[in-house]
Design brief:
Growth Hormone, Chain: A, 81% helix
Length: 348
């Protein structure tokens, strides 16, 4: 994600999509071939390596979207366009998961890997034939990597986006651990039932995609304050009376808050990034946010294992209290959501 964002600032959209898709397809073909072998440590290690290559290649092919949208879409239309693309990603995930589950049950795990590889490579080949390279893309200079973090830290808004989103993702990661543990051990959910519960919980993402364009950009304060407040309220009620209904409500609220968090912070990133570094700044912020979620999952799992099964949820609630203050702090840094320029050169 970090390297892909940097490349997107000076490489053409066509070259990145083609290389990323074909690279991801080759990695899936290799994974499918390994899946047909007898698994031992060396094969497992190579399989994991190919999975990492697949994720990296996918990040490269998706990176141009982070630079293309803020370059061609007017500031007032960014929330709506982001919501449309978010809806497409949601449907892609739901339909892909359903198709994968059906195919795995029908033919086993190897066939879907090869089929996915064929679709991804075909996408790269279509991009090779249909996408062009504009003169503006050909003349973009190669940006330095190291000053990107300085561009984030020197910006009052972007630095606060970094801190706020990391803390929110950390709390969300711990909450997800607790909800998953509760479903598995208290409710006795099978993998199928847990998958159905997660699918129901994803309705929160749909609600977030519907709400975010209505709040942004004119109601930025509500857009940044609602995710931590809604998540803290729902998790607090669930801790008092843990029930299956509360579990589903927790999942829906978690998905809702995550979607609205991404919408609000994505909008601020798009409108406050220097236009020549939109990709590298998006990659930097995205990497830090993913690390926040990963840290939350790891810490939450460790706390539940060492102490008690509700420890991670309680810690998540404690973390969410200052996160609300961070959300207000972030909103104040934007001059109360006042007008800003799309093509910011940099602000302190």
């Amino acid at each position: 994600m970090l390297y892909g964002g940097w490349l997107a600032d000076y490489k053409s959209t066509r070259s990145m999509v083609v290389v990323g898709d074909i690279g991801a397809g080759i990695a899936l073909v290799g994974a499918g071939a390994l899946a047909m072998l007898h698994m031992h440590y060396a094969v497992y290690a190579l399989f994991v390596t190919l999975a990492v290559v697949y994720v990296m290649a996918g990040s490269v092919s998706r990176a141009p979207g982070r630079t293309l949208i803020p370059r061609v879409v007017d500031r007032q239309d960014l929330p709506k366009v982001n919501a449309w693309f978010g809806s497409l990603r949601w449907w892609r995930g739901i339909l892909g998961s359903l198709a994968a589950g059906y195919l795995i049950a029908l033919v086993g795990p190897v066939g879907p890997l090869f089929l996915a590889a064929a679709f991804i490579v075909a996408s790269g080949l279509v991009a090779m034939k249909t996408l062009g390279t504009s003169p503006a893309e050909q003349s973009r200079p190669r940006p330095p990597i190291r000053p990107t973090i300085h561009s984030v830290l020197d910006s009052r808004v972007l630095s606060r986006v970094l801190i706020f989103a990391f803390a929110m993702q950390f709390a969300s990661g711990m909450a997800m651990v607790e909800l998953t543990v509760y479903a598995r051990f208290d409710l006795g959910f099978s993998a199928l039932k847990l998958g159905i519960a997660l699918a129901v919980g994803s309705l929160g993402s749909v609600l977030g995609l519907v709400m975010s364009p209505r709040l942004l950009p004119n109601r930025l304060r509500a857009a940044v304050l609602l995710p931590p407040i809604a998540l803290a309220t729902t998790l607090g009620l669930w801790l008092v009376t843990p029930t299956p209904v509360g579990f589903v409500a927790g999942l829906v609220t978690l998905m809702l808050s995550t979607t609205m968090l991404n919408a609000a912070t994505g909008y601020l990133r798009q409108t406050h990034s220097p236009i020549t570094r939109t990709g590298s700044i998006a990659g930097t912020l995205g990497t830090v946010h993913q690390l926040g979620n990963l840290a939350g999952v790891l810490v939450g799992g460790a706390l539940d294992t060492i102490l008690a099964l509700t420890t991670s949820m309680r810690v998540a609630l404690v973390v969410l209290v200052p996160v609300v203050a961070l959300a207000w702090w972030l909103w104040r840094s934007t001059n109360g959501g006042g007008p800003i320029s799309r093509h910011v050169v940099g602000e302190v």
